[in-house]
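Give me the 3D structure for DUF1013 domain-containing protein.
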Amino acid sequence: MAQPIMAKATAVWLVDNTTITFKQIADFTGMHELEIQGIADGDVAAGVKGFDPIANNQLTQEEIDAAEKNPLHKLKLKFNSAAVGEEKRRGPRYTPLSKRQDRPASIYWLVKFHPELSDAQVSKLVGTTKPTIQAIRERTHWNIANIQPIDPVALGLCKQSELDAAVQKAAAKKAADGASMTDDERRKLLSTEQSLSMDPEPKIPSAIEGLETFTLSDDREEKEEEKVFDADSFFNLPDDDGKDDDDA
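Predicted structure for DUF1013 domain-containing protein (248 residues):
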């Protein structure tokens, strides 16, 4: 549900100028009912000047009258065509202070495993700046030796659906540009749902590539097995003629 601008000041005005219940005001402003009660008692929002929602095109008088007559009526924010699209986020994503130290690790993960993503896409996903992204791409970041790549989804910096959408957009752009891609790059450009639905591809370990037709036996080995060796064949013994010559 859309909320009014300056919600706390709007709540102050509604408490002071209407008989609407605390629950109705709390639902309209997105605040807790106890906060509205605190405003009425003077414990919350002390010194805050009320913000008239009627004069500022957020409520109509008819809507307030209906709410005063019916305690179950929920106030509805007045439609403002000029505000359409204002809720859309612009610029880099806001990252909470507790997770800002994780951003270099997530940037490193994105540039390593999804190099096709542009700096603008990376910035939008994890809420960072282009100089930081370039520093990590070029490994000139001051702490690059201690940065380990970590999936930003696992860190809670973005949603899997957002990452998949960015990857798919990068794939479409690369395909439109006509750039050739390796099999590994194509696999990276798949979304999580697509990659999980694919059948596992049998692979030959790299250590034995080229040995698919190798056999453990050949004709020469079979012939060697057929040949029988006797004990005398392992010693270079003189023949009988040599013995006769020594006796003479």
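The chain has a mean pLDDT of 76. Let me know if you want a second pass.
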